[in-house]
Specification:
The protein has about 325 residues and is mainly beta. It has a single domain, classed as TolB, C-terminal domain (Neuraminidase). It has two helices and 23 strands. Strands 2, 3, 4, 5 and 6 form a five-stranded antiparallel beta sheet that branches. Strands 1-23-22-21 form a four-stranded antiparallel beta sheet, with no helix packed on it. It has a four-stranded antiparallel beta sheet with strand order 7-8-9-10, with no helix packed on it. Pfam families: PD40. This is Exo-alpha-sialidase. It comes from Flagellimonas nanhaiensis.
Length: about 325
Amino acid sequence: MKIYLPLFFLLLVGTKCIIAQNIEENPLDFPILKGPYFGGEVPDMFSEVFIDEVISKENEPEMCGVFTDEGTKFYYNALHNGVWTIFETKLVDRQWLRPKPIDFSNGYTDRDFTISPDGNKLYFGSNRPKPQENGKSNNLDIYVSEKLASGKWSEPKNMGNIINSNRTENYPSVDLKGNLYFFSCRDEGNGGCEIYISRFVSGTYQTPELLSNAINSDKHDWDSFVAPDGSYIIFSSQNREDTVGMQDLYISYKNNNGNWTNAINMGPRINSTNDEICPSVSLNGDYLFFTSRRRGKADIYWISAKIIETLKPEYLK
């Protein structure tokens, strides 16, 4: 018996550690949810609150949700210790784990993120200290984190002075070529915040260019999400003549000449008399996510991404 006692105690300690870990990740106040997309009903052509009272909670703000890995991982923004933080939850052994901040997101504002089409890079805006500076920044810069072989995310890197200025840069999104779309509130263009592209050429980001007036207006234009193939861009704009609320989501398509079509309001299936911001499409292309304040604070909503095709002008179909 003495020969087996050390092994017994190792097994006992290991079992207790596993139990403790499961309790931490799935405490009693987090529901048992199973299957892709949290096991719930998925939306069709009308937007719905995303996983009400589990992710989109009545008394807490959330925004910027997206699925990866065929619906088995979900990322979103929520407040943690008073700052916007990127959370992750995933399906393990057919059960969803309690959401928790991803590895690097703790203590600084990390918000308005998107994930690259291949799922390996996470882009976001943050007030974390700029290189060679101490303390939080007074404005948001764009950062990128890469997925490591372990599945964790690397320490974020500031994207540098080609992309970032002394003004706010935020809501980055990339296409399959690596071209980076983002908004900035610089003193140029039509006024207000506007949407830029920095082209990725031979492994280097180029000087950002303003998108055309088919997208940018004399209002605030921001929160742009570009299709992986660059065929459309969805963004939020404020107080346009056809805006239903204060901020609505709009869409523009690339035409046959490679130019952007005039922006189209995405209509009442998405927009309300309140704000709609933070669009993104799940990596498999099935669902469009966005944030709405129609319940009095920020909540995540989703709708079938088929709506993108229905809004396309007939001459492009």
